[in-house]
Every structure is written in structure tokens, then in C-alpha cells.
Amino acid sequence: MAGIEAEFAAELDRVTFSEPRLPVLSSVTADLVATAAEANSCLARQLTGRVRWTETVRRIRQQGVGRVVEVGPGRVLGGLSRRIEPEVQVRSTHNQRQLDSTLADFISTPTPTPTPATAGAGHRQEV
Fold this sequence. Notes:
- It is built from five helices and four strands, in the order αββααβαβα.
- The protein has helices at 2-13, 36-46, 53-62, 76-84, 96-108, and strands at residues 25-26, 31-32, 67-71, 89-93.
- A two-stranded antiparallel ribbon has the order 1-2. Strands 3-4 form a two-stranded parallel ribbon.
- The longest helix has 13 residues, at 96-108.
- The protein is globular and about 45 Å long.
């Protein structure tokens, strides 16, 4: 797998990355991506690196995010997210119609915000 990571990294080096304009959280580091170079590095490590999903979901919640959209087939990540942070609203989408409906719902309803007492507190379940 290390060979494919090097090949993928070489392809990524051909791409011009911009500095993130919106917050981007890497599931490899469970931290915010601050620079274009860091985005490139995180993507390269995504193929073989350990996914830190529990830490990532907790960090999402600590950042004040109350809603998450899982895009693609299946509902595994959404289900894991609910187990890690039960207060987060998760919607799974696997086609354009569902994605459009989800985004319309999110735009028309207020965003839930974590309270200091609940944001990431007391959830010790590891996945």
C-alpha cells in the first residue's frame, strides 16, 4: 500500500492547492487543515493512515457543528457519528435529490449549538 501512497502523492503534487477558505478537518489528524501544503499532505496520508474518526467527530462538535451530512452510499459514518456524539444531527444522502432536500432543510432550520456542558463531554465510547 505504501507504493500506491507514493504514486498518489506524486499525482497530488501536480495539483495546485489553495489555502482553505472554509474550515477543513482532516480525519487523519483530527485537526483543522490550515494551509494548502497541509491539505496536500493529509490527502496523501488518507490512503494508508489511521482514520481518527472518534476524535474527528468530537472535534467537529467542539467546533460548534451541530449537523453533518454523509454523502455517498451507506450510513456507516453517520451511524458512528451518532454513537460518538448523540446530539449531532446526521443526514445520509446517496443521490442529488436527497442532497438537495437535506441542504434545503438545513438552510430553513436553525443550527443546533452545543452547550459547554454537552459539547464532547462524557462520551467515552471508542469506535
